[in-house]
Amino acid sequence: MPLIQVTLARGRTPEQLHTLGKALTDAVEQAVGARRGSIRVVLTECEPQHWFVGGETLADLRESSGR
After folding, report:
1. Quick one: CA torsion of 56, 42, 25, 59, rounded to 10 degrees?
2. Which of 7, 16, 28, 54 could cross-link to 12 by cystine, CB 3.0-4.6 Å?
3. How many angstroms separate the CA atoms of 67 and 61, rounded?
4. Sign of the alpha-carbon torsion through 10, 12, 14, 18
């Protein structure tokens, strides 16, 4: 039973998360021949204020880049 765990900064739409979950499932099915029903995908969202890149929060980096 393959298990894929992905941590993302919060900010994607439910549709984007659904598309990612499906794409990851498709990729594992094709890459290792796992049965689709046995593949598990866990998407964990993290607040941008709790995600640090080079000592700065992702929220600050997004703000300074206008995103």
Report:
1. -20
2. 16
3. 9
4. negative
Condensed to tens digits (0 to 9), the pLDDT of residues 48-64 reads: 999 999 999 999 999 99
Owner of token pair 């499906």: 22
Question: What's the CA gap between 66 and 26, in Å, rounded?
Answer: 34
Report the distance separating Cα 21 and Cα 27, nearest Å: 10
Q: What is the pLDDT of residues 16-49, one digit of tens each?
A: 999 999 999 999 999 999 999 999 999 999 999 9
Q: Where are the beta strands (DSSP E) in the chain?
A: 3-9, 40-46, 52-53, 56-57
Whole-model pTM? 0.84
Two structure tokens written together for 44: 């964990």
